[in-house]
Amino acid sequence: MTETATHPTGAFTPPTRFAVPGRIEVDGRVAGAWQTATLAEIRRETPRASTFRLAVPGWAGHVPGQHLMLRLTAPDGYTAQRHYSLASAPDGSGHIELTLDHVRDGEVSGWFHEVARPGDRIEVRGPLSGFFAWPGDRPALLLGAGSGVVPLMSMVRHHRARGLTVPLRMLVSARGPEELIYARELGAETTPVFTRRAPAGTRAGRLGAEHLRPFLADPPAGGWEAYVCGSNSFAEHASRLLVAAGQPVERIRIERFG
User: Fold this and answer.
1) What are the backbone dihedrals phi and psi of residue 186, each rounded to the nearest 5 degrees, phi first?
2) Could you give the CA distance from residue 66 to residue 146 in angstroms, rounded to a whole number?
3) Of 64, 40, 43, 53, which is closest to residue 184 (Cα–Cα)?
4) CA angle 178, 183, 189 (to 5 degrees)
5) CA distance 216 to 223
6) C-alpha–C-alpha distance, residues 130 and 36, integer Å
7) Model confidence over 194-233: pLDDT tens digits?
8) Phi and psi for 54 in degrees, rounded to 5?
9) Within a 13 Å sphere around the CA of 4, how many CA atoms are in the beta-carbon half?
10) d(CA 14, CA 236)
């Protein structure tokens, strides 16, 4: 996906593909091969999101922020394919994790949430895409909303697992505490923003300049690499906030959906 810095209406749309140091190259031979994955575990995250742990013995590894293509094949030969971000950190275990929202009338997400059971087999291909990947080599400021937190959580888990000292901070937006994916796992690196229902003593409202100010007023040496993931409206809103706060446009990477 490639986008330009301006929209025909004049609205600001940051680019989503940059020639920047540290860009990840994808091995086309590995990423192009379909592999059989076995569903090993299902974990409920929120009332409408679950994590699906897959055993993929031939998985070559990935970089946090990458995604894969998943393929389901029905008995009559009909196939459905979808792209999903990887939630797990690369760990060489031969397992990967996906966290999926239960989308109304969703062909693939519906199967995962309503039909899938441990032991089921599916096909996966990847890892794919390098522009949103973060190998842990520079300070990272992560902004996500809803299931947009999934690839960002891969980065957080990688940061923890490797004991990295490079600065990493995450702001994640959810409508309320019950819809905050990975709530039990979030730590001091994360600032949650609740748009509709906030805990007692916390103001509900949309992500704003006041949430970014502590990070961009005094950035780490070398500045931040900003990663934004969420719906189209969230991606544009968060990107505008970043630019207004002084984040260079060429150091904003975006993944959007919807």
Assistant:
1) -70, 145
2) 18
3) 43
4) 140
5) 9
6) 23
7) 999 988 888 889 999 999 999 999 999 999 999 999 999 9
8) -115, 135
9) 6
10) 8
